[in-house]
Amino acid sequence: ELAAAYEDQVACPKRTAMVEVLVRGVARGEVRPEAACEVFAEILPSMITARLIVQNREISDEYLVQVVDDVVMPLIRAA
Predict the structure, then answer these.
(1) Cβ neighbours of residue 56 under 8 Å, at least 6 residues apart?
(2) In 3-state terms, the chain is what percent helix, strand and coil (to 5)?
(3) Mean pLDDT of 6-23
(4) What's the rounded Cα separation, in Å, for the pair 79 and 41?
(5) pTM score, two decimals?
(6) Are 22 and 78 within 8 A, CB to CB?
(7) Number of Cα atoms under 13 Å in the Cβ half of residue 23
(8) Helix (H) or strand (E) holding 24
(9) Conformation bin of residue 41: beta by default, left when phi > 0, alpha when psi is -120 to 50
(10) What is the pLDDT of residue 30?
(11) Could you tell me if 18 and 41 are in contact, meaning their C-beta atoms sit under 8 angstroms apart?
């Protein structure tokens, strides 16, 4: 039940919002079209959730910058 509640109340809304961000990035020519999907939208929220909940570690600005610059952007960036 906890997993279902988390999916409905947290994960799904975050995934939907991230897909919307990716779609806007495609429209601006910054994101490759095939990256505007749920799989790519799950990367950043999943990494943050794992760090907070599984590893019990804080999310610093430096961590977020590194994840976005070194993980997310290379995966989604338009050519």
Answers:
(1) none
(2) 75, 5, 20
(3) 94
(4) 19
(5) 0.83
(6) no
(7) 8
(8) helix 12-27
(9) alpha
(10) 97
(11) yes
